[in-house]
Design a protein that fits this description.
Blueprint: H1 3-19, H2 25-29, H3 32-52, H4 55-78, H5 84-97, H6 100-103, H7 111-126, H8 143-156, H9 164-182, H10 187-207, H11 212-236, H12 246-265
Helix pairs in contact: 1-4, 3-4, 8-10, 9-10, 11-12
Length: 266
């Protein structure tokens, strides 16, 4: 047995001990439902470690994330539903089954062709015809990610634009429609038109092979870094954000942008 598998088996055993009588009260009382928030949190912390380009941090966060499926499998095992071995057997079989070009004699010429082939195999595995081409998108995905998945599925059956300028024109159209609702002061219509605008922007990102969720997340991170720079500079000068003028803050904001650009050029 490899050292990796020994470590994995040890982790499974540790979780069993934590949930056993005389183990950890907190671990013992957890359920699939109570652990949902932690699964999401660990996923985002892995992404944060990747963005930070910190191998040591990534190693730690991957371990925390790996704990989550082991936790869920331990709960299921106690209920007589399935074990961690069942989980591993299922994913191993699925990977081999859905990669016949690797583990069989099928030929795939591109990544796009493989995605289409994956979907065909997946559809056949389900054993039933889905009612809609949009079926299969997890309902609880973040909204931008869900919109990307929806437009991606629609595009696969031909419901898509032909050129980038058409998609861009749709964004402009939705922007104008949102602008028209501002003067009316109708919150419900404003919300609807804002949703249309966001959906059109996501579709443009998807058409250009850009991940809108990732793009917005990176923009948020840039905003936080620049805002913190402004705060730190003002604090060092003995000035609060409330006391500083917009002109002063904007100058420091531009300074933060220049620092970022210089770091990227190194």
């Amino acid at each position: 047995m490899s050292e990796e598998m020994k470590g994995f088996d040890r982790l499974v055993e540790i979780m069993r001990e934590l949930r056993a009588p005389g183990g950890c009260p907190w671990d013992a009382e957890q359920t699939h439902e109570s652990l949902k928030r932690y699964l999401l949190e660990e996923c985002y912390e892995v992404i944060e470690a990747i963005d930070a380009k910190d191998p040591a941090h990534l190693k730690e966060e991957l371990g925390d994330l790996m704990l989550q499926p082991i936790f869920h499998a331990a709960i299921a095992e106690e209920r007589g539903e399935f074990t961690m071995e069942d989980v591993l057997d299922a994913i191993n079989e699925k990977l081999v089954r859905r990669h016949p070009h690797v583990f069989g004699d099928q030929i795939v010429k591109s990544a796009d062709e493989q995605v289409a082939n994956w979907e065909r195999i997946k559809k056949a595995e389900k054993g039933e015809e889905r009612k809609s081409a949009l079926s299969g998108v997890p309902p609880h995905l973040p909204a931008l990610m869900k919109a990307h998945k929806i437009t991606e599925k629609a595009a696969r059956v031909g419901f898509d634009w032909e050129h980038t300028d058409q998609v861009f024109a749709k964004v402009i159209e939705e922007l104008h429609e949102f602008e028209e609702t501002l003067a009316q002061g109708d919150q419900e219509r404003m919300e609807a038109e804002l949703g249309d605008l966001l959906f059109a922007i996501v579709n443009l990102g998807r058409f250009l092979s850009l991940d809108t969720e990732e793009a917005l997340r990176k923009t948020i991170n840039r905003f936080i870094r620049r805002f913190n720079h402004v705060e730190d500079k003002l604090h060092a000068a003995g000035v609060t954000m409330q006391e500083a003028s917009l002109e002063e803050m904007d100058k420091l904001w531009e300074e933060a942008k220049r620092i970022e650009q210089q770091e990227e050029e190194r």
